[in-house]
Design brief:
Blueprint: H1 2-62, E1 78-79, E2 85-86, E3 112-113, E4 128-133, E5 136-141, E6 147-151
Antiparallel strand pairs: 1-2, 3-4, 4-5, 5-6
Length: 154
Amino acid sequence: MTHSRSLMYRSLMLALSLLASGVVQAQGPPQRERQRERERENNQREQREQQRQRRDQRNHHEQRDNRDERGERGQPRWRDGRGGWDSRGAGPDHSFHRGDRLPSYYRSRTFVVEDWRGHRLSSPPRGYHWVQTGSDYLLVAIATGVILQLILSQ
């Protein structure tokens, strides 16, 4: 009887150990999967950081010293047609410059010049129209409002 009890005890211990190892093994793959997922997230985070650093370095190299291109009060100056610098912009407060986006208020039909010949303006290219702001004229992209050309009054 003691022998059978001892055998039963060993069998029970073996069964419990097998059961316990099965539970551990059952928990193993999800833990490994979570570890892989964490590693993937870390790799993605590192890649994004590297991309951000490369972009910042590119932007830093593209920035140039444009102190000579600034007019009075630090306002940007633009090349006039004669190769010099002109700080005056178009519009009532002279704040519209080439490359700027014209406010939507000025893109309404009220300011658009339909009779460009009557105003002695050149034909606007496809996708552009002339806009009159005070006595100045702007050639503006219809879709984006970006100013392509200025004609300033004297």
